[in-house]
Amino acid sequence: MSLEIRVVTTKKEYKEFVGLPFMLYKDSPYWVPPIKSEELKSLQAEHNPLVKQCGVRFWIVFKDGKCVGRIGAIVHHQYIEKIGEKIGRFTRAEFIDNKEVVDLLFGTATQWLKEQGMVEVQGPLGFSNLDHQGMLVEGYDRLPSIGSEYHLPYYKEHMDRMNFSKEMDWIEFRLGIDGMILPEKALRIKEMVRKRNGFEILHFDKTKDLMSYGQEIFKILNEAFQDLFSVVPLDQEASDYYVKKYLSFLNPRFVKIMLDKDKEVAGFTIGIPSLSEAMQKANGSLFPFGFYHIMKAMKQPKVCDVLLTGVHPKYQASGAIALLFGELHKEMVDKGVEFIETTGMLETNNKAISNWKNYPHEQHKRKRCYRKELV
Question: Three-state secondary structure along 52-94?
Answer without folding.
Answer: HCCEEEEEEEEECCEEEEEEEEEECHHHHHHHCCCEEEEEEEE
